[in-house]
Amino acid sequence: AQTVTQSQPEMSVQEAETVTLSCTYDTSESDYYLFWYKQPPSRQMILVIRQEAYKQQNATENRFSVNFQKAAKSFSLKISDSQLGDAAMYFCAYRSGDTDKLIFGTGTRLQVFP
Amino acid sequence: DGGITQSPKYLFRKEGQNVTLSCEQNLNHDAMYWYRQDPGQGLRLIYYSQIVNDFQKGDIAEGYSVSREKKESFPLTVTSAQKNPTAFYLCASSMRVRTEAFFGQGTRLTVV
Q1: Which one of A39, A41, A79, B94 is at 20 to 30 Å from B106 when CA atoms are compared?
Q2: What residues of chain A lie within 8 A of the CB of B106, using their CB?
Q3: With an 8 Å Cβ cutoff, is B39 touching chain A?
Q4: Residues B55-79: pLDDT tens digits?
């Protein structure tokens, strides 16, 4: 069975600084997709970034980028130039390319200080 | 507007009663999902469905049931067998593979 692990329950960063959130996963599949979602206090889930396992190039979306290490099964999220609006829960997610099963980690609460 | 609608936003039930949470999408998505969210435990998968008339158990299916009679609808029933039903429930949908899931706004279920 696949698993997703987020070992940092809470992180904090100062405005304009950079922070990295960690995520590791376990799978025996070769076809899968990885995601980072943001959940603000409204509890609405918002996609931040996604990575296809077959792509070697790390995904980037404006201030958000990932460090995808396939052999190590690691998928960390880097937030550059942090803003107050980045404060939220962040969830790492794994989707099977075979079964469409989509599972999440336990989340990291990010605080941003002015 | 296209999207996923969960209703109601807040739901109260007495212990021992079954309750059904609604999830409707008009995005023409094939796959649909139900998650339970508790503090400190992230999103845990209850059930998911890839196509109409088919669904699979997730990691915490005990005490829950689903149906998928229509592509746009995936209702979740919380039965009296679920020992701790009070939680926040999220529904999601997506195209088959290679795309992200889109989420509803959730239903907060409180059983008293």
Answers
A1: A79
A2: 43-44
A3: no
A4: 999 999 999 999 999 999 999 999 9
Q: Give the integer Cα–Cα distance in Å for B103 and A46.
A: 8
Task: Using alpha carbons, list the distances in angstroms from residue B50 to A19, B3, B83.
Answer: 36, 18, 27
Report which DSSP code applies to A28: S
User: What is the three-class DSSP state of B86?
Assistant: coil
A35: part of which helix (H) or strand (E)?
strand A32-39
Task: Label residues B44-69 b or e (16+ Cβ within 10 Å = b).
Answer: bbbbbbbeeeebeebebbeebbbebe
Q: What CATH number corresponds to the domain at position A56?
A: 2.60.40.10
Averaged pLDDT for residues A27-44 = 95
Tell me if chain A has a CB within 8 Å of the CB of B95: no
pLDDT tens digits, residue range A65-92? 999 999 999 999 999 999 999 999 999 9
Domain count, chain A: 1
A·B CB contacts under 8 A: 54
Per the structure, the complete domain to which residue A30 belongs is given by: 3-113
pLDDT at A4 over 70: yes
